[in-house]
């Protein structure tokens, strides 16, 4: 789920510029990163995000899964999103 302390600014090429208001650091995201960011709304599971990316981009599902997880780890590391906690 996206953190509330992040402002997202859409750019004409479908990329995004994220600005973390707490650390005052900007993070540019390319089109695929922006697509994943938009799905980090708390309503989509990790598997749903991977499925959506796989349906949009031409690549092997295994590679998309690996890349998406790695990208989300970076977003979590920079406090741009927080991981979803599974509901028991």
Alpha-carbon Rg, integer: 13 Å
CATH topology, by name, is Arc Repressor Mutant, subunit A
> Based on the structure given, which CATH architecture is correct?
Orthogonal Bundle
Characterize the largest beta sheet: strand count, sense, and whether it forms a barrel: 3 strands, antiparallel
Helical residues, percent: 40-55%
Spatial sequence of strands, sheet with the most strands: 1-2-3
Mean pLDDT: 92
Let me know the number of strands.
Answer: 3
The fraction of residues in strands falls at: 15-25%
User: Structural class per helix/strand content?
Assistant: alpha+beta
Structure description:
This protein is α+β, with helices and mostly antiparallel strands and 88 residues long. It has one domain (6-77): Arc Repressor Mutant, subunit A (Orthogonal Bundle). A hairpin with a 5-residue loop joins strand 1 and strand 2. The chain is globular. The chain has a 3-stranded antiparallel β-sheet with strand order 1-2-3. The chain is built from 3 helices and 3 strands. The protein has helices at residues 31-39, 46-56, 61-77; strands at 6-10, 16-20, 25-29.
Topology:
Blueprint: E1 6-10, E2 16-20, E3 25-29, H1 31-39, H2 46-56, H3 61-77
Antiparallel strand pairs: 1-2, 2-3
Descriptors:
88 residues, 42% helix, Arc Repressor Mutant, subunit A, globular, 3 helices
């Amino acid at each position: 789920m996206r953190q509330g302390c992040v402002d997202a600014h859409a750019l004409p090429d479908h990329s995004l510029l994220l600005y973390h208001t707490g650390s005052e650091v900007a993070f540019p995201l390319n089109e695929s990163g922006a697509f994943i960011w938009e799905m980090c709304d708390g309503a989509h599971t990790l598997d749903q995000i991977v499925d959506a990316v796989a349906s949009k981009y031409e690549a092997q599902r295994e590679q998309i899964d690996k890349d998406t997880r790695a990208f989300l780890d970076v977003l979590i590391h920079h406090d741009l999103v927080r991981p979803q906690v599974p509901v028991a």
